Amino acid sequence: MPKTSNLRVGLIGYGYAGKTFHAPLINATPGLSLVAIASSRPADVLADWPDIVVKTEPDRLLAHPGLDLVVIASPNDTHHPLARAAIAAGKHVVIDKPFTLDLREAEDLWVRAEQAGLLLSVFHNRRWDNDFIALCETVRSGTLGRVVEFTSRFDRYRPEVKTRWREANVAGAGLWYDLGPHLIDQALQLFGMPSAITADLVLRRAGAQAVDDFHVVLHYPTMRAVLAASTLVSGGTPRFLVQGTEGAWSVSGLDVQESCLKAGLLPGQVGWGVDPRQAQLFRSENDQISATDCLLPQGNYAAYYAGICDALLGKGQNPVTAAQARNVMRILDLARISDAEGRRIPLI
User: Fold this and answer.
1) Cα–Cα distance for residue pair 15/45, rounded to 1 Å
2) DSSP secondary structure letter of residue 9
3) Cα angle vertex 9, ends 126, 72, to 5°?
4) What is the pLDDT of residues 154-188, one digit of tens each?
5) 288-295/278-285 β-pairing
6) What CATH homologous superfamily does 7-123 map to?
7) Do residues 93 and 75 lie in contact, with contact meaning Cβ atoms separated by under 8 Å?
8) Pick from 53, 55, 73: which is nearest to 12 by CA?
9) What is the CATH number of domain 127-299+331-346?
10) Every domain of the chain and the residues it spans
11) To pair with 128 at 20 to 30 A between CA atoms, which of 25, 86, 97, 191?
């Protein structure tokens, strides 16, 4: 592991994920220095980062001297080959979600990183959404009793199909690969691996070429988790709705950290993560339902890269391990099988 506290980071990809999430969060993390970015649009990078080294090809970034960590935020179908090349070059690796295109690729990278003694992590940043942090505290405190149903939705209203790879008929495109990993990872953090899965992955919009609506059920022995997202929902659905034997918990809207990053704010600055939303806790007593508003804590995307830095310096654990990300890929794969075969798929 590197001994210096000034870890040098290279970023591959400067599309939405690289520009909005990775570059600013890396730059804002004490102990990490963003020194190079690989992008097919170098002018866009230099407009934001005039003093940084820009490479037009990923292999040139991997050859840049002194890099400790490579972050891969390029299109999904490039994750496996680029991470494989980075590991072969002796670099620690962070990959934007989804980990890879399928379980086989994920396990290949996991084995290669383990054999090389390198850190391999996946950017499941939604673990640090403020509403999910509050939900975890509520569920684990026992306030709701035994959870019987968990519903997690991440909806958008985008009725027009855009010309971009995320909505094209290419490997790794579509809403299941885009938002599915977030919802799966959160569910697995709360409840572990399910016993079976049932999935419906569809194309709803006129001209759609990739999945733009999904409804997936994770079956557990005493509960179910419903994961859903659509591009044709204009409102009226909660982000989370949790039903328990002693109460329910609900929250609508989205954590504001992404909006803050898009506006140029960084963790620690005035206004960062300020969220006016409140959750609602529902309790029943004497056949009467009461509702209590609950303040949400501040979200903490900064915790991810702080955790990566600590792990590389031997001061902490990998915040999202390859094993955890591999389980997400297993659910992604099984959902596609369930949809194709029209049946519930057991996890063996």
Assistant:
1) 10
2) E
3) 50
4) 999 999 999 999 999 999 999 999 999 999 999 99
5) antiparallel
6) NAD(P)-binding Rossmann-like Domain (3.40.50.720)
7) no
8) 73
9) 3.30.360.10
10) 7-123, 127-299+331-346
11) 86
